[in-house]
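ping. complex inputs:
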Amino acid sequence: MQEQVRAKAKALLESGVCDRILAWKTGEFFYDVTPAVFTSVEEIDRDLVYNAFCGANLSKYLIAESRKGGKVGAFLKPCDTYSFQQLLKEHRIRRENTYIVGVACEGMADIETIRAAGIKGVTGGDFTGETLTFETLYGAKTMARAEALAERCKFCKSKKLVIFDELLGEQGEEQDVGRFDEVKRLEAMSDEERFAFWQQELSKCIRCNACRNVCPACSCEKCVFDNPNSGVENKAAASSFEEQLFHIIRAFHVAGRCTDCGECSRVCPQHIPLHLLNRKFIKDINEIYGPYQAGADADTRPPLLTYETGDPEPRRGDAG
Amino acid sequence: MQRIGVFVCWCGSNIAATVDVEAVSQALSHEAGVVFSTNYQYMCSQAGQEMIQAAIHEHRLTGVVICSCSPRMHENTFRKTCERAGINPYMVEIANIREQCSWIHKDKAVGTEKAIILGRAAIAKVLLNAPLTAGTSPVTKRALVIGGGIAGIQTALDIADAGFEVDIVEKEPTIGGKMTQIDKTFPTLDCAACILTPKMVDAAQNEKIKIYAYSQVEAVKGFVGNFTVTIRRKARYVDEEKCTGCGLCTEKCPQKKVPNAFNLGLDTRRAIYIPFAQAVPKIATIDADYCTMLKTGKCGVCSKVCTAGAIDYHQQDTLIEEHYGAIVVATGYNPIQLDQFDEFAYSHSPDVVTSLELERLMNAAGPTGGTLLRPSDKTHPHTLVFVQCVGSRCDGGEKGKPYCSKICCMYTAKHAMLIREKYPDTEVYVFYIDVRTPGKNFDEFYRRAVEEYGVHYIKGMVGKVTPQNGKLYVQAADLLGGQQLKIEADMVVLAAAIEPDKSARPLATMLTASMDTNDFFTEAHPKLRPVESPTAGIFLSGACQGPKDIPETVAQAGAAASKVIGLLVKDHLVCNPCVAESNELMCNGCSACEKVCPYGAITYIDKEFRGPNRTTLLRRIAQVNPAVCQGCGACTVACPSGAMDLKGFSNGQIMAEVDAICR
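pong. complex structure:
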């Protein structure tokens, strides 16, 4: 697939369809693949990768990229296309300035899982196929991609590309693999247990803002947490605010708009399972207002912004 | 820096009895920004207001906090007081220490503590208040009346009489409503049609009144003085301009088996019909559920016989949009369905009828030509039993309504009297919980039924009605006589409870007008503003607001009309300056606010912004039309970035209040 992506990227530039290409390149370490904008064929040949570490969701970068002059071509994985469509719905991206190549995804690997399997001291390898091969200080090693998957990919909601101009690889389907199981486990806890769980998790937060900065739904022109007039910004210094409120407020702000791409948990250096907060909201919305997947289509009115006369009036306990 | 004055009202003993007002004014005098604090017996009195004005001048106050009753009572009073003393009226905040404090607490220490906290919150808010100036909006000098019964007709006639244009939207093919189905009216026993039809004709002929019959309100946008209403004109399959109302089609139509809704299904009519002889407008309508031509494409008899060429099988519903300054709701009532009252055998015997069905059975234009006959065998009934409160005053139960339907006692006395007068060979029993006859000449009327007409009034409820061998066996309790009764009746008449028309609930949603749990429209004040909805520009007429008889309905219709006239006579209305405002620097242009705005006050523009490195960025941003915004605040909560804020109730102000309370 990596070769197909490279070839397509080059063709888009050479044919003049796109002025620049948004894709991935390897960072300092083999596993920290980062989003990158390519403007020449040479750069593409040298740097562009599409492998098991291309977890980064590129849709958010298109907010800024689509406002610059010219046309940007972007490679979006299935979950990225949900975010992209959701941002289109919110009028954040100028669609006419984008060219979307949908790429099939076999799931993204998680470096912690690989390390836990005893693969350390990696110096190189090939991470593009179904089997990941590693050259390490201790010799060559292999691991099946399916075993190295990140948590969010194990519970992948959909391999369907919901919006694209062109498709690379096979179109996929929506999947039901129990992504709410963990939420159900939390719901089954007593109030005290659940409070203790989140107190424990959120107390790890170092307020690096990585979750917010990577989140496609957290793309406000001015974030309330950066706004001295918002009434929440300066509370951070006064109390253990992150622990108690930052993530809760953030979850409320993205409720109904979060596509469950899982980027928040991927980038958290403290490994806080932030996606569970969002999934709880998604589960509640599904149960109260009927199934809804943010970003799945361009037209459905978001339930939290829609009033219908038959809307239920949920009370505490109604949705767990 | 603001200079705040605090004025604590005793409200006589209303507040002072459970709140130590001196302690409150003392405590609040130490709050940041407060330069003057006092208390007084009646702040709203002339002397109290002069005290506020003097303090504003003497202490050069910039903001005022009044600790008193609910802002619904005197906020306006104090705003005007301060305006006269030269400070902006929106620099006044009310701390409600009466309804929300003194009235609900018994312990003075607790009440005092809470009053201080409420005062503190108001001070925190007023510190962030900014002067606001109200704009004005024009008034569309045209009214809409929804519902063309006696309530709607009377309201429309009165509004038109004052010289304003008024449209009536009626969902049935004719105006007239329930009153057209009623035979005689209490307490005078005059013919309902004789007094109603002249009003229907007046409405039709009045050049200020336009009647949209067989139409429904589809959507309502806008606000007081400036409503835009979409009206669905349902397809009659008859050209209203061409139809002369000759009725030939209604005689020739071969489909004869259609239940006649006007006679409550007691007889049948044709698929093309005019509901009754005096219908207004007198235009035929094809019932699409029964018309053979519309269903199978084979027939066309009405089209062949119509000399005016008015039949149009291809007619479609049309939507029209009209502008109004005021809307009157007159959607009326219906008797409840009786399927949950099997004990009275309503669904088992045709001889058990509702009171409204009895009206048709006694009406000259009804299915029996005005002769009272049993529906089952068309014979003359000799014993009739009336059951009162069927579904009314059912407290807490699964079935029925908790309220008294109000009109049943009187119409049952009317029915009993009419039957006894016309058929002296009958025995008439009325079973009641109470007989309620307040109203001019009402009790006299009921007593005549008992004393002159010999109607048997029995206190007690009917337990069971059993149809057997062509008779109805009625088991009932006589509570005063202390015995069980068994009556062999020929007919049983049920005084079914009345409920608001089913169309009222979705309409209330469209109008953002509030309703009570029984789906009756709520009035702005139960005593002092009985014909206005709490939503500005929406008025209430007739039984949509609560059960009413005809005289009350007509009185309320006139009252609603006078309120509408009072509105339409104005050229401009002062707008509420507490409207939403979007901070364009923070706006994402995401449309969340637009989606939740019930008034359509938000639009988007693309605006150029200065970007980094001398670039220009084009950004989509929200703009609020302050004349359309009603300040509900829905947008401020939907906005993810906090760009949308409500003037006078900003997020910052509310947070400051919460902080002050939690301090």
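Chain A is about 35% helix and 15% strand.
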